[in-house]
Amino acid sequence: MGESEIKIKSLEAEKLEIKNVKLEIEQKLRDFEEKNSELEKEKNDTRLELIKQTRELEDKIKELEEKQLNENEKSILRNLGELFKFFDNQFDDESVAELEKLIKECEEFNFIDAPNLPDNFKLESKGLIKRANSLAKCYHDLQLAKEETEKLKVENQKKEEENKEKVEKLNQEIKDLNSKIEKELVDNSEQEKQMVELWGDLEQLRNDKNSQMVSLQKQLDGVQTETSQLIEKIKKDTAEAVQTEQRRLLEAEQKLTAQIMTNKVQEQSIGRLKEREKELEKEIENIKEKIIQELKEKGLETAGLNLKNTSTPKSSNNTNTKYNIMVRKNISNNKTFILE
Fold first, then answer.
1. E strand or H helix at 157, and its extent?
2. Rg for the chain (alpha carbons), in Å?
3. What is the distance, to the nearest Å, from the Cα of residue 189 to the centroid of all Cα atoms in its chain?
């Protein structure tokens, strides 16, 4: 690309920038006008709503004025009446300033010291004061938006005049450069021929590149296929290993459960043996009591006491136990009793 072409592109870009600035300003103007319309509509809607509410409250005020009211209540009704007058007139800066002053006084109403005013009347009055404040604010917003719109229009007009001169100058420069380029093209037919040859070489390089890309894509597809197969094999081997390990864990769990059951059976057997041992000890004690009773009846009291104080040995292996008790009584007769 020659220097002239670069310059033309630069000038075209400058023209485009000027056009974009113009479009941006026009969009801002449309936005401001739309905002103005919305604010105007909001102001009119609020004003109409206030007029409607004013008509309703005026009738209620006339009814209330016929009642016995205190000074505070009379002041509230009087200020509300003054407030109603503003809604039927056109607004300007002076009237809005007076309206805002009156709104401020109305916001300081003492509705607590107004027992003769109905509660719904108080609520409607507060709502009306609030809407009147919104109306004043809307008026200020609208005036500010109008001022900004007019200011933007003046700036846009001035900018358009400047841009018009600048665009005409740019168009002339572009025209001069195009003439220069046309002259250079006539003188550079040989360069055009070389460009055609270079273009052919470039196309050949592109074709070679496409062939290489196709070959590389095939290789990549083969690698992806092998990778997928390898992943599937690994998944299969892993699943088999997991299943084997799960079987081993299940077998171990079954063995452990069986061992636990065996231990429980053995514990139950040991418990039954211990209960049987207690029963045998109780039977032995009963036998001893019977023998002692018989010995007492036969006059062998000493032997009975010795037998009663004799301890009963326990066998460590819970088998049958033999007891040998030597009882001596009546030494003069040399009588010996053996209990096995």
1. helix 119-187
2. 59
3. 68
